[in-house]
Amino acid sequence: MFGEKFKHRYALTDKGLENTKKGTFWTVIVNLIMMAGMGILYFLMQKYMNTLTDGAALPNAWIFAGLVAVFVVLSFITHLQQYHNTYGLVYREIKDTRITLAEQMRRLPLGYFGKRDLADLTETIMGDVNRLEHVWSHCLGYLYGAYISTAIIAVMLVLYDWRMAIACLWGVPAAFILLFGSRKIQKRASETLKVHALAVSDNIQESLENVREIRALSRETEYLDGLNRKIDRLEKTMQNGELVIGLFVNGASVIMRLGVTTTILTGASLILSGRIDFMLFFLFLMVITRVYAPFDQALALIAEMFVSQVSANRLNEIKDTPTAEGTEEFKPDGHDITFEDVSFAYDDHDVLRGVSFTAKEGEVTALVGPSGSGKSTCARLAARLWDVTEGRITVGGVDISTVDPEVLLTDYSMVFQDVVLFDDTVMENIRLGRHGATDEEVRAAAKAANCDEFVEKLPQGYDTPIGENGTKLSGGERQRISIARALLKDAPIVLLDEATASLDVENETKVQGALSRLLAGKTVLVIAHRMRTVSGADKIVVLKDGTVAEEGRPEDLLRQENSLFRHMAELQTASAGWSI
């Protein structure tokens, strides 16, 4: 039970917990051996005092030299083991943690990313993990090792003289009580700092992503002024936070060091009263030069551990988010997509309510309706990018909520309105559609998507880098690459969400012709605004306010006088504001 709580508190894996135990063990050994060095010095001084008082012979120099040699060798070996079991093992833990986070995020439902912005997630993966890395490597083993070794030393000192032991060690618990008592204050300061740091990151990222729009609207000064204010607020928060932490850490250090004073005063009083001898007093004077050493670092470490709780909570929030799971076997009977009384809510806002329809294999099913009616949501639910709130969606009779999303998506090709490209060549961006595709296959898919026209004008043709998210290309060119990628995958189900929205009439006609030829026999679910895009569909599903208003063949719906589809077609023809 304690182990699970400890892991969760510091966002450790099972391996990380084992590494912390090893680091703690070797820290205890190091601290005890360093204290044993004080014992060697005490042994020598005691023999020397016996010589002065009783005329006893000094021990053989070789004995003392041997003890020192053993101390040096043991100190070297244990410090080496301590380093390996704190820093060395923890650096591997960091790698595993980032990979685990990436794997977890890869399996999270898409709805999760709608609640977290990019800067926030990036800060968690990079900043929070880095912060915890320092805690894992510099804090946990050292701090808990200091606890255990000091407890052992305290027992030994009590056996020598309990009065001197109390005088020597009372400051340690008092210092920690002060620090732990201020934990909430320090944690609150850390949370405030994190909020302001994310605000700065968000502003910088927003400015970089929208630099063209900002310049076009002459808003540079306004954005820079806002960023300056946020940076100033962040700096002030950092200063206040460091001041708070510094006050408590330094205050705890002062309290702990008062043990030196009480040790001297208590020892002098006991010597004068004849209750202890000088050598016992000398022993405790040596002890206090070493017993506080582990806690000099530990006091600052505790403050850092309090602050790290915010980072650990952020990591745990990702780790604890339920992933989209399912079986790795997917053997549908055909590829009909069926919505059965499907409802979906996003942040307590109902998007779909009781939606039922079937997109048959070998047919093109078009979803139309006003903006916000739930068309894109249906497409994403059909690919299990989100999970339905109620009802179910089947492909070939198989409930897709029971299938692992990665296995399910092997049967899907998708082209959405928001195209995502990578900072690579045209060739490699299209090849993402099917790993291992030959250059000839990539070019064939690109030609079918009408990419040849603009690729031939690029400096290096298909080997031309296109910049981050295709910044060197126009919107229509980026969308054609996305279509080529989907065509290359050649999956039995194709989802097109306004796939030709950025194309001019001429290019749209060419791409539509290519799609008509290459998508024959597949299950096609298409969302489009233009009437010409859906006019050739086999079936129309009209959505309104998250429900199915009507469905049927385009020509049948157009013949119905009170048809919503007909009404939208007429409005679009008249250049009105409805979207089809």
Can you offer a commentary on this structure?
Mean pLDDT is 81; it is low at 576-580. The longest helix is centred in the middle third of the chain and has 53 residues, at 220-272. Helix 5 (118-160) runs antiparallel to helix 6, helix 7 (171-181) runs antiparallel to helix 10 and helix 8 crosses helix 12 (293-319). This protein has two domains: 2-319, ABC transporter type 1, transmembrane domain (ABC transporter transmembrane region fold, Up-down Bundle), CATH 1.20.1560.10; 337-573, 3-Layer(aba) Sandwich (Rossmann fold), CATH 3.40.50.300. The strands form two sheets. A six-stranded mixed β-sheet has the order 6-7-8-3-9-10, with helices on both faces. It has a four-stranded antiparallel β-sheet with strand order 2-1-4-5, covered by helices on one side. With 580 residues, the chain is an alpha/beta fold. The chain has helices spanning 2-9, 14-54, 61-106, 110-113, 118-160, 162-169, 171-181, 183-209, 211-216, 220-272, 278-291, 293-319, 375-382, 405-408, 426-431, 439-448, 452-455, 475-489, 505-518, 531-534, 554-559, 564-573; strands spanning 337-346, 349-359, 364-368, 390-395, 398-399, 412-415, 493-497, 523-527, 539-544, 547-552. The two termini are 58 Å apart. The protein is 64% helix and 10% strand. It has 22 helices and ten strands.
> What is the 3D form?
elongated
Count of β-strands:
10
Outline the biggest β-sheet.
6 strands, mixed
Distance between the termini: 58 Å
Q: Mind telling me the CATH class of the largest domain?
A: Mainly Alpha
Task: Report Rg.
Answer: 35 Å
Order of strands in the sheet with the most strands?
6-7-8-3-9-10
CATH topology of the largest domain: ABC transporter transmembrane region fold
The number of helical segments is 22
Under CATH, the homologous superfamily of the largest domain reads ABC transporter type 1, transmembrane domain
CATH architecture designation of the largest domain: Up-down Bundle
Specify the helix fraction band.
Answer: 55-70%
Mean pLDDT: 81
Strand content: 5-15%
